[in-house]
Amino acid sequence: PEETKLFFPSELKDEDRKLPRACSSELVAAETRVRVAECRDALETIRRGLRTRSAGVMFAIQNVTGQNPTTRAQGIHMKVQVSIKIAALQYRWARNALFRLRRHGDWEDELKILKEEDIRGMNERLL
User: Fold this and answer.
1) Residue 88: exposed, middle, or buried by beta-carbon count in 10 A (0-12, 13-18, 19+)?
2) CA nearest 24: which of 38, 8, 35, 36?
3) At what angle do helices 67-102 and 25-63 cross, to 10 degrees?
4) What pLDDT, on a 0 to 100 scale, did the predictor assign at position 121?
5) Dist CA 103 CA 62 (whole Å)
6) CA 20 to CA 107: how far, in whole Å?
7) Which of 9, 50, 86, 109 supports an S-S bond with 121, CB 3.0-4.6 Å?
8) For residues 98 and 111, what is the distance between their CA atoms, to the nearest angstrom?
9) Cα 83 to chain center, whole Å?
10) What is the pLDDT of residues 69-97, one digit of tens each?
11) Cα(28)–Cα(92) distance, rounded to whole angstroms?
């Protein structure tokens, strides 16, 4: 039983999702709510990571000198960068699942496609 694959409605084909015995409308609505929340959480994690990265860079510029402290600061910077990348992947995955459920609609005004060039801090220039 633990090895049984459970499918979310977004993993089913459109024609299979419309079959009453395959997927109920309540299940689709529940997954939609979960995916919207997942997208919002991922965006907040990205924002928090960008703020942390910006503050860390400013702190390092002003206070870090020498090889050991610089290496440690780089390690912390890389951890923050990885968390930003993971959150971006989570957002894209959840948004794609949401798109499979809802197709095009008003929800796309809030949850837009996330491009790599969009992931930058407020004080970072677009090159």
Assistant:
1) buried
2) 8
3) 160
4) 82
5) 48
6) 25
7) 50
8) 10
9) 10
10) 888 888 888 999 999 999 999 999 999 99
11) 19
Please check whether residue 36 is in contact with residue 99, taking contact to mean a CB–CB distance below 8 angstroms: no
Closest CA to 97 of 20, 42, 21: 42
User: CA nearest 8: which of 23, 25, 26?
Assistant: 23
User: What's the pLDDT at 79?
Assistant: 94
Alpha-carbon separation of residue 15 from 6, 8, 47, 83 (angstroms)? 18, 14, 37, 37
Q: Using one digit for the tens of pLDDT, what is the confidence trace for 5-44?
A: 877 888 888 777 777 676 777 888 888 899 999 999 999 9
* Lookup: tokens for 9: 């409605």
Residue 104 and residue 4: Cα distance in Å, rounded? 32
Sign of the CA dihedral running 83, 85, 91, 96: negative
